[in-house]
Design a protein that fits this description.
Layout: H1 31-55, H2 59-85, H3 98-108, H4 112-140, H5 144-172, H6 187-215, H7 233-236, E1 240-242, E2 248-257, E3 263-270, E4 279-284, E5 288-292, H8 293-300, H9 307-318, E6 326-330, H10 334-338, H11 346-360
Helix pairs in contact: 1-2, 1-3, 1-4, 2-5, 4-5
Amino acid sequence: MKHTALAAAFVLSVPLMATTAPAIAAEAPSTEQFVEKVAASDLFEIEAGNLASKQAENANVKDFGQRMVDDHTKTSDQLKTLVKDKDIKAELPAAIDDEHQAKLDKLKESSGPAFDKSYMSGQVKAHEKAVELFQDYASAGDNADLKQWAASTLPTLQDHLKQAKSLDSEVSSAPAVAANDKTMPNDKTMANDKAMADKRADATDDADDRDEKATQPSKINYVTRQSPTDWSAQDLIGRSVKNMKDETLGDINNVVLNEKGDVVAVTIGVGGFLGLGEKDVGVPFDALKFRTAAEVETQAGTDDATKEERAEEKREARNDTEHDNMVVVLNATREQLENEPSFVWLDQQAANSKRSERSVE
């Protein structure tokens, strides 16, 4: 079967990317300020990006808007997880603040080329501030986990800024049509205009194709290292999943990804005996938690270590290159998993469909 537990070495969370430290030490914002600014920016970028993907006239601006929705939704989710899992004392805004709402309202009032110019100009300014914010915090922030995340996210923001500047230049150089020009062209003028427009469109398409081929490699943010919170499929497949009572629920048999690279689920083998009668249950990846063995033992009431010893065990576990002292945790019982429906792979679905067709015949 294609879904046998074959170890594929890919990373399952946002990796740490190498960045160059500035020559002069940055004055970083506090953790609370950083979290609030990033969260507010993400909310605005998602809303403005949605608007651009529908309202922009330039196709490249539409695509850029959709990229902003996708990328900033991802960073927003990552930030929420960090704040929650690392118990970071910072308030995440529930809605767009007044400053960003005013910018959004102004965008909603424009359309056509005017919208494209206003949106891209604002994107350049917004991403210049974002890059500076992330650089400062990655260099001198006071929370280690957030510093690491800021450093890993920075290359994507720098690429956003580069693309925003290019598109801002493109839409700014587009010829403007005077609003009060009501001169009606004759048939010959219209035909000539159409021919010129067709030539410009063909030239633009050719240029776009060349530009896409030339610039495509620069958009790849290559992964250069693994961070302590990164896992590979090889690390996960075959690992036991427990609950916080230190009860083993089953073993991870495989990892399921979608075409965007998001980890959708893991399949956990439950029930059966010595591999017989076992079934796969698909568990959403975000339902899993990663805890140190000391934390699980403490919760289960089987740990007699002192507070200092547990703190040291936690530090060692996070820097363990094989994750041997980390536990994959699911908030469930064996009975609950055994009562869940089996996960059905594509080849199994096809086989079931063929059996159904034969029974009908």
